[in-house]
Design goal:
Length: about 625
Amino acid sequence: MNEYPESPIYHYGSYELRAIDRFTQKYMTDCEVLKKRFVNLNTSIYGKVYFPSRSNALKVLGKCIGATWTSPDASGLQSLVWRHRWEESRESQHQEMLVTYNREDCEALCLLAEELSKIIKSADAHVNIDFADRPKQHSTELGNEIHDKFQSILRYAHADYDKNRVSIRPQQSSQCTEGKKRGGVKGHKGSTRIAPSKAETVIRVMPKRTCPKHKGEPLEKTGKIAEKFIINLRFTKTGCRKTVAKYVGTQGYCRKCLRHYPPPKIKDLGSQQFGHAFQAWVIYQRIVLRLPYRIILQEIDVLFNERMSEGTLINFIGYFAEYYGATEKFSMRRIWESPFVHVDETLINIQGVDHYVWVFTNGTYVVFRMTETRESTIVHELFSDYKGVLISDFYGGYDAVTCRQQKCLVHLIRDLNNDLWDNPYNRAYEAFVNEVKHLLVPIFETEEQCGLKRRHLRKFGKSVDHFYRENIDKTPSNCELIAKYQKRFQRYRDNLFAFLEEDGIPWHNNTAENAIRHLAVQRKISGTFFKRVAPQYLLLLGIAQACRFQEKSLLKFFLSEEIDIDKFKAAKRINRSFVRRLKDIGGHDQRINESSPKNGLYQTAIRTPPVIP
């Protein structure tokens, strides 16, 4: 074997390696390097290659591939008989039979190795070799001709029938197509947008007065005109319509730098072609209604006769994320000032890589943050000096946060209940859960009647202490389930019932889960997000959820161009049908004060008493 140090040593089964181990011990030699060259062909066949046989024995497989043995009864058991007879008689014929048997076994193994090589190299072309996961489709020559023709029909039978019609003949090369226009498809980012030629409104802007490079140098007025078209939406009480505004102004000329400068207003517009209201409508469709970009583009085309690419919509999101960056800062500041904060996290897919999104809310404002891992570093950074109460689930990453905490009892009750469903006949665990029920139910009933008031809830501190003495602080239970919850109650003793000692502290984390549920639904729809767009989307989603918690319209907030949600006041909805009924009852002498609602009704000042039949 040492004469061919680079050659692999093929064997079949595990007997040869065991024999080498015995030789190593008997003759006190090292064969580890030799054993690394051994290749067991049985591992390449078992569960991977199925020959037309009932066994994977070498004799059975050898006969399938053309191997033969001189002795008709050659087998491993028969070789032991030949060996025994040779040791007794020392006759050469028995020795020759053994040597011949071993040589023919090696020849069969060589044939098997060659057959496996053929299967690996030319399985697709071999007629008698098939794959279990993708079986070959066999057909005659006529059948192949039919399949090819039908396949060519199906290949071109797309949903976009006008562009890809069903074709029986092979299509001509695109190089031979005459009259093909250059450039990208209309609506694609490679297409040059055709500016509107007409405008409903013409806005004349002031020209630039001084040169930006030479301070104090006045610009000369020229006859050169700069203009910019902006497509926007005008919203009314009954709907919206598209508007086109044209900004016009004269360019100024500097004699020192020999350049023309457009008016400041037109320069600020830059490459922007759509107004704030138009972009607000698009963001509303994407964030609140969860519509895919493709559907939004179809709506824009149908409703406003405008075509654009998905990249333009993504630019809208980037512009709004930059414009409303201060809104998120305002929300984060007010969350820090609140007496409690709900926090939760969820998984999100960013181009095939798992990331985590964290939500922070006080029930009025919402802020999202994204991290690459589930490490709670972001929570420590934001709430290291927080003076309020952090409400969270039982994820261990929150435990090291230095502020006071309240653990969500909903998660605890849900875990207890699920384990009780899974172990319905565990009497000891059932009794333990019953004790937890007797502790929590009176607390929740009082909270429902009196609210989260310390003066009504602090009396249950004695019940909590009694529960811990009788069920938690005693010797750990032999029941594995009870022991698990005893450890949880001991670990979070100060955090499970913090709401009993302070006013207005919730005992559950439902607000955070409610804020993050919109993202969970969008995650099911989209599947994955782009890394560049995800932070911008989360910023706008936080603003949308804050508007929802405050019962304000996100679209109207965007249309107001206000950046502080508190300063934006939602218009009160007046029940017009109710006002009309009052007018019908009271006659024409009745005056209705529509702006003074009280207890769901509207104040009325009546000159003449109404006649009610």
